[in-house]
Amino acid sequence: MNILIVGRQEIRAPNKRSLTLRLIFSLGKMNVKGNGMKSWIYLLVAIVAEMVGTSGLKASDGFSKLWPSLLTIVAYGASFFFLSLTLRTIPVGIAYAVWGGVGIVLITLVGWLYFGQRLDAPAIMGMLLIVSGVVGDYPQL
Predict the structure, then answer these.
(1) Which of 105, 93, 123 is CA-nearest to residue 47?
(2) Cα–Cα distance, 71 to 91 (Å, whole number)
(3) Helix axes of 121-137 and 92-114: crossing angle, nearest 10 degrees
(4) pLDDT at position 58, please?
(5) Which of 23, 32, 98, 131 is the most buried (most CB within 10 A)?
(6) Residue 8 exposed, middle or buried by CB count within 10 Å (0-12, 13-18, 19+)
(7) Cα separation values, 120 from 65, 93, 124, Å
(8) Which residue stretches of the chain have pLDDT < 50?
(9) What is the DSSP letter of 138?
(10) Residue 42 CA: distances (Å) to CA of 9, 34, 87, 90, 121
(11) What is the bridge-based pairing of β-strands 9-13 and 2-6?
(12) In whole angstroms, what is the distance from residue 141 CA to residue 93 CA?
């Protein structure tokens, strides 16, 4: 019998494959205050806000431009607020790995599409390693 404890929840299964499947289905059901799936939506909002904040940081030119600077401050505040809501039900390691990994990939794509930054083979390889590291550490994602 394989046992995995996630937060306050204990998951039991006869083998690792069944344990992984049960974990996948239980992540959406994790519930501290009735927020099962909401936590994943909060995490998505936190990721998008972090991406907006980082884009604003680039556009602020070292906080020398008012509106991009204000956008940066508001967006990062929103990102941390929604990340904190996420941490009510999703374990911190999983939430931070998803937040950081997806955020890196998205902001790299924004930099490439909107800021004209070069996306070469080493950058693509680095992003693939980040994503594989997140998925490898947390195969239930």
Answers:
(1) 105
(2) 29
(3) 160
(4) 93
(5) 98
(6) exposed
(7) 30, 30, 6
(8) 28, 30-33
(9) -
(10) 21, 13, 10, 11, 32
(11) antiparallel
(12) 12
Q: What is the pLDDT of residue 4?
A: 57
Phi-psi region for residue 63, left (φ > 0), alpha (ψ -120 to 50) or beta? left
Question: pLDDT (tens digit, 9 = 90+) per residue, 57-93?
Answer: 999 999 999 999 999 999 999 999 999 999 988 889 8
Residue type for position 39: S
Neighbours of 98 (CB within 10 A): 21
> Are 105 and 47 in contact, with CB atoms under 8 Å apart?
no
Residue 58 φ then ψ, to 5°: -65, -45
- Identify whether the C-beta of residue 127 lies closer than 8 Å to the C-beta of residue 104: yes
For 2-139, strand residue ranges (E) read 2-6, 9-13
- pLDDT at residue number 126: 87
pLDDT the model gives residue 136: 67
Instruction: For residue 128, give both structure tokens.
Output: 């693939």
Cα-Cα end-to-end distance for the chain: 22
Q: Give Dmax over CA atoms of the chain in angstroms.
A: 59
What is the length of the chain? 141
